[in-house]
Amino acid sequence: MIRAFGLLMICTALAAQDAPRVEAPRLSRPPALTRSPDLSDWAGALRITDFGCWFPVDAGEPIVETVAHLAWGHDGLYIALEAHDPEPAEVRSFPGRRDTLSNSQDTVCVELDATGKGQAVVSLTCNALGVQADALDTATGSSSSYDLLWDSVGLRTDYGYLVKIRVPFTSLRRLPGDWGLRIRRYLPKGRGYTLAWPQQSQDNPCDLCQLARLSGAPVTNEGSPFLVIPTLTARRSASRAEGTLDHPDPELRPGLDLRYSGRALTVEGTYRPDFSAVEADVDPLVINSRYKYQYPEKRPFFQEGLELFTVRGAQQQFSSRSLLDPLYGLKATGRAAWGTWGLLQAQDEAGGAALASDGFATDGLKTRNLVAAARLDTDAQGSHLTLLGTEALLLGGPGRSTGRSGGLYLDQRLAANLRMALSRIESWTNLPGGSTETHGTATALALSWNNRHWSVDASTQATSPDLALANGFVDLTGYRSYAFSAGPGVRSATAWWSFLGGGLDLGRSDAWEGAPLSRSGSLFLNLATRIRLNATLSWTPQGREWVSGKEVRTNAHAFSLSLTRWPWLRPTLALSGGRTPDYATGLPAEQHSRQLNLRGNLQAFSYVLQGAVNQLEDGGSGALIRRAQRIYARMEYALPWDLHLRLQLQHTRYESPAQGTSRARTFQLLSGWQPNAFTQVYAGYAQSRKTDRTLEPPMERLMEKGLFAKIAYALRF
C-alpha cells in the first residue's frame, strides 16, 4: 500500500491556471465602517468593476453593475461593495440573527484564502443590512457552523445597497505571500443570477483553484493575537432517569474559551463548553436501513480547524460527534510551506460506551482522546497527502482499554478534469478484559472526471469486519462496495429552463467473505427552471438485496420539488417509495416516505415548518410493520440592537403493532443578544416529554425541564 502511494505521488499534476493578480494598497488611515454612503475615505483603494456572470451560465455581460474597493489597513483587510440595482426598492434583505441568511435575499460574498494554498477558503456573506453569515469551504465540503470574528455594516442606497467589511489579520490563519480572493454577488430575483470576480469557468471542476491572487498583505500582525471568551452558565433543571423527577440544586458553572492566532499558528482551548444554545438535532426518522445515520456537527468549538481532521476516505476516522460531553478541549493548528498540521486533545465525560465489549458496560466512563494530523501539499491545484492518527483511552474500569487508528489519504489532481482520492485506514482495539488486540482495515479509491457538460464518478470501498474507530464513525463493517455514476448537464440563460441534467447510477456491494449484499441501477433527472422551480427524479426499475442469505427483488422511485421564487414562502416536497427488504427480518416489504418543508421570511420574522412520515409495510399483505412521523417548527423574530427570539418545537411518533407506540416532544424558547460570532447573552426554557406504550405499565412522563442562561463576551488582548 505504501509503495502504491509512493508511485502515485510521482504523478505530475498540471500547473495552476493563470489567475488574475491584483495588489491592494495599504492606507495610512483605514476607512471607517459607518452606515454612510460616503466613500471618500476609500479614495486610495483598489477598484474592481469587471464582474462576470457565473450562474446560470459563465458567459455574457452581467445584468447589473458591481464595484468593489479593497485596501489593507494596519489591522486587517477592508472591503467596500457597491451593489447597483435598476430597481433599488426591490432589493430583498431582512433583519435577522447571524448565520440565518437564505437564498431569497440579495447578498455579497467575499471568499478569502489567507494561506494561498487553495485548500481552505473562508466565505464571508452579508445582505444589504449587514447581517453576517460565515462558512468554511474545503475540497471535502462546506461547514456553515464555522465562525469568524469580523465586522460589517450595510445600508440601502438610491442605486441599490452598500456593504463595508473589515477582516482582522488575527482572525485568519495566514502565511506570507499572496492571498486567494474571490467576490460573488447573488441576485434572488428572476433566475437567481450569480456574478463573480474573477470570471469563473464551469469547465474547471476545481472551484477552489479559480481564486484571484491578492498581494500587498503586511507580513506582521499589528492586532492582538489573543482572544479570551469567559462564559457563565446558569441552569435550574429537573430530569428523570427512572422513577420520580429529580430536582437538583441550581447550577452556576463558569467556562472559558481561549484562542491565540499567530501568523501561521492557532491555539485554542475550551473548558466546560456549554452548547445549550445549539439547535437540537432533527430526528431523521430512520426505521429501516442497513447503514447507520450520523448527525451533523453544530457545536462551535469543533468547527474551527475541522477541515484538517475530516478528510474524504473509506470511513470517517475522526468524528467530533464521538465526543459527547467534553470537560475540556485543546487544539493547535499550523501552516508551513510544506502544508498543514493539527493536534487535538479532549477529555470526554461520557464517551466510554464507544469502547464497550460484550458483557462490559462502560456507559458514563471518561475517555481521553487524541487526534493528530499532517497534510502535505503535493501541487498547486489543491492536491494533498494527509496522515491522521487517533487514540481513545478509557479512564477507569478493569484493565486498560484503548482504541487507536492510523490513516493515509491522497487527494490528487491527475489532469485538468480528472481527480483521484485514495485512502487507507487501520485500527487497533484493546477491550476491557480482552487478552488479544483486534485489527481492522478500510480502503477506498474514487475517480472523478467532469466538465461543463459531463460528470463521471467511479469508486470502490472495502471495510473489514474488525474495523473499530473509537474516535470516528463507521456506517457498516464487513463489506465491499462498487459505484459508478455518469450523466450530462446543460445550462441556459435564455430558455424556460436554467439547468437540465440526468444520468445513470450503478451500485454493487458484497459481504467481506464474498456473499452478495445488493445490486442496483438507477436513472436520475435534474431540472431547474427560470421561475426558480427545481425538480429531481430518480427511478430504480429493478434491483436485488440479500439479508441473512434471503434475496429480495427491489425497486425504488424518488421525487422532489422546490420553489424559491418568493422570500415569504419557499416550499419543498419530497416523495419516495418502493420495494425493499425489512432489514430486521430479511422479508420483502414496501417503504414509503413523504416530507413537506415550508420556510420563509416576513421582514424580521422567519420560520421553518416540517412534516414527515416514513412507513414500512409487509410486502405481501400490506400490513403495517413500522411507522415514524415528525412535526418540526422553528420560528425566529429579529429585534433591534442584535436581539432575537427563537421558538423550536419537535414532535416524533414511532408506531409498530408488535412493539406499541412511543412519542417524544421537545420545546425550546430562547431569547438572545449576539453582536458578533463569540459574544452572546441568552436565556431560555426547554423541556422534553416522552410517551412509551411499549412498557408495562405504559409510560407518559415529563423527562426533563429547565431554565438556562449564558453570558459570553469576546475580549481581545
Question: Would you write up a description of this structure?
Answer:
It is a single chain. The protein is 2% helix and 55% strand. The radius of gyration is 26 Å and the shape is globular. The protein is mostly beta strands and 717 residues long. Among the domains are: 2-215, Immunoglobulin-like (Sandwich); 264-275 and 296-474. It has a 24-stranded antiparallel barrel. Strands 1, 3, 6, 7, 8, 9, 12, 13 and 14 form a 9-stranded mixed sheet that branches. It has a 5-stranded antiparallel sheet with strand order 2-4-5-11-10, with no helix packed on it. Residues 1-17 and 356-361 have low confidence and may be disordered.
The beta-strand count equals: 39
Main sheet summary:
24 strands, antiparallel, barrel
Count of runs of 4 or more consecutive helical residues:
3
Low-confidence stretches: 1-17, 356-361
What percentage of amino acids are in beta strands?
over 45%
Cα-based radius of gyration, to the nearest Å: 26 Å
As for the CATH topology of the domain at 2-215, it is Immunoglobulin-like
Task: Sum up the overall morphology in one term.
Answer: globular
What is the helix content?
Answer: under 10%
Structural class: mainly beta
In round numbers, the mean pLDDT is 86
Text of the CATH class of the domain at 2-215: Mainly Beta
Rounded to the nearest angstrom, the distance between the terminal CA atoms is 48 Å
CATH architecture of the domain at 2-215: Sandwich
